Automatic annotation (TrEMBL):
Protein source organism: Brevibacillus fulvus
InterPro entries to which the protein is assigned, alphabetical: 5'(3')-deoxyribonucleotidase, 5_3-deoxyribonucleotidase-like, HAD-like_sf, HAD_sf, Nucleotidase_putative
Protein name: Nucleotidase
UniProt entry keywords in alphabetical sequence: Hydrolase
Classification lineage: Bacteria, Bacillati, Bacillota, Bacilli, Bacillales
An individual GO BP term: deoxyribonucleotide catabolic process
Source species, domain of life: Bacteria
Active site: residue positions: D12 (nucleophile), D14 (proton donor)
Length: 189
């Protein structure tokens, strides 16, 4: 792979382009907790907040639009993605539901985050979407997604370092701490 050539980059949205801790204040507000992002050591926030899956799904149904509208940008994602836009194909593949496309596109426009395509799957299973779009690499924050994509597609995965994805990683998955670090690594491919 030569980063001087055009790449098709698969990119998760929540916790990747948006700040990974952005859901915690809203969950604290709704469930009367005072948890810190660093305490969220499980991706499944229902477990962290000691609520049922049904309660979490209901909460997301009630608060998803606000969450997606108000989520802060993750670091310098906007700058890096703008730098890539004319050279690489940027495809956002997210577990968000299709009904949130308008609020998602609005967020991208307000934050000047460019895209070639946004695919909202309504599921964490991103494998078929990534395969169908022939992604050359993927940027993700959910460990299970990273493992599945790396193993099935045999492509590099950049996994944002978060409290909820700590585990030994196979060689195709590289833990990263910033968008700038990803930009530098992609330039080296």
């Amino acid at each position: 792979m030569n980063a001087k050539q055009s790449l098709t980059i698969g990119i998760d949205i929540d916790g990747t382009v948006t700040d990974p801790g952005s859901m915690v204040p809203m969950m604290n507000e709704s469930f009367g907790k005072n948890l810190r992002y660093e305490e969220c050591v499980d991706y499944n926030l229902a477990t962290i907040y000691n609520i049922s899956e049904a309660e979490f799904v209901h909460w997301l149904e009630q608060n998803g639009e606000r969450l997606y509208r108000e989520a802060p940008l993750h670091g310098t994602a906007d700058q890096v993605l703008r730098n890539w836009y004319n050279r690489h194909r940027l495809i956002y593949i997210s577990a968000r539901e299709q009904k949130h496309l308008a609020v998602t596109e609005d967020w991208f426009h307000r934050h000047a985050v460019p895209y070639h395509e946004i695919a909202l799957l309504g599921s964490h299973d991103k494998l078929a979407a990534a395969k169908e779009r022939n992604v050359d690499l993927f940027i993700e924050d959910r460990l299970e997604n990273a493992l599945q994509l790396a193993e099935s597609l045999q492509i590099p995965i950049f996994l944002f370092d978060t409290p909820y994805n700590q585990s030994p990683l196979p060689p195709l998955i590289r833990r990263v701490t910033s968008w700038q670090e990803i930009a530098e690594l992609i330039d080296q491919l």
